[in-house]
Structures are given as C-alpha cells and as structure tokens.
Write a structure and sequence with these properties.
- It is a single chain.
- The protein is α/β, with parallel strands linked by helices and about 290 residues long.
- The chain is built from 9 helices and 12 strands.
- It has one domain: Alpha/Beta hydrolase fold, catalytic domain (Rossmann fold, 3-Layer(aba) Sandwich).
- Strands 1-2-4-3-5-6-7-12-11-10 form a 10-stranded mixed beta sheet, with helices on both faces.
Amino acid sequence: MCLALAAAAALIAQSRVQAGELRVETRDGRRTAIVLPAGSEPAPTVIVLHGAFSSAAWTMQHYGFAEAAAARGFAAVFPQGVRGCWNDGRNSFPWRADDVAFLKVLAGELMAERIADPSRIYIAGVSNGGMMAMRMLCEASDLFAGAGTVLANMPAAIGARCQPSRPVPIVMFNGSADRWVPYQGGGVGPLNLGGFVWGTEGTAGFMAHANGCAPRPYVSDVSIDDMNVTRFAWTGCDRRARVTLYRVNGGRHQVYGSTISHHALFGRPKQVVSAAETIMAAFAGE
C-alpha cells in the first residue's frame, strides 16, 4: 500500500489527476486496482496487468504505461493479481484465482463508474500479465478494442482451446534472446517450472488467423535509435484488427523503456525503445 500511495502521488503531481483505488468483490475475496482517470469521462481506458510476483504499483511507476496513457487522454487501470500473479492458464502456481471473472467484473465497474468508454477498453500486460491478456482475448475478446503484450507468448493449454468471439487488434513486443519466455516456445523459466508456451511468431500468426488477416505478414527491419528491431505486420484483417509483432533482435526478458531492470536475472536491458509508447500509440490510432 505504501508503494501504491507513493507511486500515485508522483503521478498526481505530473498529471494533476486524482488516482484512486477501485475495489471489487469476487469469489476469491476483495480484489483491487489502482485507477488513474482521464481528464474527461468516460474515456478510452487501458487495463495493464503486471508480471509474475510483481504489483500494480510497481508496474504503474516503472513501465511507462501511465505516462503514455495520460499523454493520449486515456485512463489507466492497474489491477493487482492474487499473491502477485495471474492465472493465465499455464497451471504453474498452486493458487488458481478466477482472474477471467475478476477482469470481466473490473471492466464492468469501470463502465458503471463512467471511467471507461465501453467501446474503447484496451488490455495490456507484461510477461505473466501479457499471457493473461492473451487468455482474455481467447475467453472475453468482446470486452476489448485492442491488446498489447510485452515478453509474452500464448500459454499452450489456452491456445489449444482458444476461440476468440471477435477480431481484436494486437501489438506484441518480444526479445529474440529471451531465455525466460523463449522466443521459439517451450518451457518457461528454470526446469520449465513456469509451464509451456507457444513460440512468439506462432502466437502472432495464430492471432492473425483468428482475426481474418492475410496469411503472411509484411516483414521489415527497422532501426529504432540504436536498436535493431524486426517488425511483422499482418494486414487485410477483419474489422481492421491487424496484428503487429516487434521482435527486438538480441533482446532479453526486459520491459523495453522501463525505468528499472534486474541485470542479474535477465541481463542488461536495451532501454531506448518504449514498448508502452508503441502500444499506446497503436491504441490511439497514431
């Protein structure tokens, strides 16, 4: 709670909006989310899911989504997972909260409180949170106008039964040298304790097919400052629900654009490109 209040205070000073805590009663008990409303309501809104063993406050403070959302007139919402994790379908944690139900109720509360424009609710997530976002696209895609994932692939068990009810545009950011969530797919983390995921390009291709996109993407190498990035763009999609994958060549398990890193665990990050800025720009139609 102290971290949440400190982070919220810093953002209030910058954006002059009042951060608050939204509480939702679920069968797993009371769940919470930090809410940074937009200047006018209801507004386009992004729900941002933290990584494993992290927190809503940490993600709000360090990953750039709060600032990128505010700059575009979006509300930003940072829900808290049970024990710092999300039940993304990999069955890698002994506790299995019904996070699909929680996020559905959260979206409903955001609409009822006139924080969120019902037609413009977006979801984004980092690592475990990104995989949870993919599960939401499989099981509740009707809620979302777009999605963004960072360092996340489709959980294998969820992908095997994934049937999105409608096309949703998605932007993905993955590092080709990520040893935690492997780019080529397979086991997550040491000894595969994090369960199993599809490969990154396979995940993007699956979502493109579900969205009715052309079968082959346009592939281009782009230089973003001093980083080498390969962009895969599936176009010709139903409802303009294009799928875009940014492969950071040589990138590891780091949130690109983050203000903080863990070199010992994941290696030195490439800090120039901002995944949050890129994702929010896509949500805003820039």
